Amino acid sequence: MDLAAAKVIGAGLAVIGVIGSGVGIGSIFSSFISAVGRNPAARGDVFTMTMLGFALVEAIALYALVIALVILFGT
Amino acid sequence: MAEAGAHSPLHVFQIEPIVPIHIGRYDVSFTNSALLMVIALVLTTLFLVVGMRRQALVPSRWQSLAEISYEFIANLLRDTIGNEGKRYFPIVFTIFMFVLFGNLLGLMPYSFTFTSHIIVTFALAICVFIAVTLLGIARHGLHFTTFFVPPGVSPALWPLLIPIEIISYLSRPISLSVRLFANMLAGHTLLQVFAGFVGALGLFGILPLAFVVALTGLEFLIAFLQAYVFTILTCLYINDALHLH
Q1: Stated pTM of the model
Q2: Set of chain A residues whose Cβ sits within 8 Å of the Cβ of B1
Q3: What is the predicted ipTM?
């Protein structure tokens, strides 16, 4: 198989990993909404942890993206 | 990624020497990346020094902002580490401001995001990692190795869990650096790609333009969020080193 074709296919397969991030972010914000729904006064503290959790989960999607870029453009 | 005759969207990450300096075989030029780092340093210093010049009891707007940034990090340290956190305030505040201004300055037109290069973020992350590990070893000596033993686990599982714990500890600088680098890289690449569509679509270019505006707003949020996450993870690692679980 052509190297360029293999690279493109590999990059496409690698990006499938961002699915996990989609599930994770939905889960985090679902918990946040439930928590604020049960106890609106806790909004400030819970929001801080939500943002931290969001950034950590988003990072996983970006790891997948970086691997895809390395496959596509690496030497 | 270069289309026929068009700029590659990755051209915005190109490092260009401004003042070429060569020592022997090494290229230590003053680059656009270095210039932005100096600008970030100058802006942070100005922000705090000029903001606190009046030192009024009822703060003006600028002084208020300077005090808010101080309190933000001081509270973060107190919440994650406890009262001992105060001695780590200078390094944590420096890291936060450096990463924050690095991310924000990249959003100015014709500017350069020095945090979008893995070497910069990796240098920061590895410095944090080595400093925190040395802190843990200095504080606890050989007892630091009990950090890799998860609490409340029967010794039968140790041969399986301890290598996993060690590997996840060693992956900290990698995750810390790649998180910041990939966020900045992806954000700016996306902006460049959609900005390319604006000219190409003619009249319908208003749609990608609106998207680019919204995306730039998101990028400001991400700039702040990534600086915050880098800082809070640094604080959590310091807490791990000091309090071993």
Answers
A1: 0.89
A2: 73
A3: 0.80
